[in-house]
Design goal:
Length: about 325
């Protein structure tokens, strides 16, 4: 009887031990652990009571990856620490920065030397542009109390050196514009009430006079350039138009109801002289004087009737110039 109890107790202990071992094995089959230490990853896996240790090494970052990571990190720190700037303040800051850059470039010695210094241009053919401002006196208009007209102008010029010397030959084209309307009306004032007669013998009485608002002038000059000076002299031809309004006289009575206009196209010849001084390599300041004339100024209307106003027409100009050389 006692032996039977011992056998039953032994069987119970064996069954209980087998059951606990199976449960532990099943738990070990699903258990696992992952650990990261430094640049290595360790995976602990339990398979049927056996633990395997697997080490996975990370590849070392390249220099480009390190630089990108550092730049990205610093940019993030800057964005976090820097407050957001208003758009107007940003525009003003960028404008001030650009102005500072331009000022730095402008104040550099190289730019100052190129723009504001003087160095003779070593070219046989020179060309440029110029502007004029001055006064004109016209003997024909002066008779009708239009005197000392203010004129402005602009022109183009070119000069060619002669025989590799300081002498040059130049031509140009200038356009002059009058600063006001040159019109005068004055029946019976001064000498303007004198009688005019057409070549057919018809009597006319002065009503008004006016000139066009521009004049075209083409000079041909020879020059000499000692140092910074350029001295030129030569001849020119110019073109302008004038118009006289006349009342007709019928049977000794002046007909004020109709004005008959007579026109004159003047192509005159004269001489001119200029003196220029180079302030810088490409910029010069100068003065110019010209004098021209025309004889027998004839006026013609649409009916081909004509008369002569003055026997001799004279015109004198005096101007200052600003000249730019390309």
């Amino acid at each position: 009887m006692n032996q039977l109890k011992i056998v039953i107790l032994f069987l119970f202990i064996c069954v209980l031990g087998f059951a606990q071992g199976k449960v532990k094995t099943e738990l070990n089959d699903v258990e696992g652990e992952v650990q990261i230490k430094g640049d290595s990853i360790f995976v602990f896996e339990s398979v049927r009571d056996t633990v395997y240790e697997i080490e996975i090494e990370r590849p070392a970052p390249t220099p480009a990856q390190k630089k990108k990571f550092i730049h990205h990190t610093e940019k993030k720190k800057e964005e976090v620490s820097k407050p957001k700037e208003h758009w107007f303040g940003l525009r003003m800051r960028l404008l001030a920065q650009r102005a500072s850059e331009i000022e730095t470039v402008f104040n550099s010695s190289r730019v100052r030397d190129e723009v504001f210094s003087y160095e003779p241009i070593d070219k046989s053919l020179l060309m440029g542009i110029k502007t004029h401002l001055g006064k004109e006196e016209n003997s024909f208009l002066k008779e009708y109390q239009i005197i000392d007209q203010t004129i402005v102008g602009a022109g183009f010029w070119t000069r060619k050196k002669l025989f590799r010397s300081n002498f040059c030959l130049g031509i140009g084209l200038d356009a002059f514009f009058y600063a006001h309307n040159n019109t005068y009306r004055g029946l019976g004032q001064g000498n303007n009430n004198k009688d005019y007669y057409t070549r057919g013998g018809k009597q006319l009485v002065f009503s008004d006079v006016k000139s066009n608002s521009y004049q075209i002038q083409a000079p041909l000059q020879i020059g000499f350039s000692p140092g910074r000076f350029v001295i030129t002299a030569g001849a020119y031809t110019s073109y302008c138009e004038y118009e006289l309004g006349m009342f007709r006289v019928n049977s000794g009575a002046v007909d004020f109801s109709t004005i008959d206009y007579f026109r004159a196209e003047v192509i005159q010849f004269g001489y001119t002289a200029e003196v220029q001084y180079h302030l810088f390599t490409h910029l010069s300041l100068g003065i110019m004087a010209s004098h021209g004339g025309f004889e027998n100024l004839a006026f013609i209307n649409d009916n081909n009737e004509s008369f002569s106003s003055v026997d001799e027409f004279k015109e004198t100009k005096g101007m200052i110039q600003l000249v730019y050389t390309f």
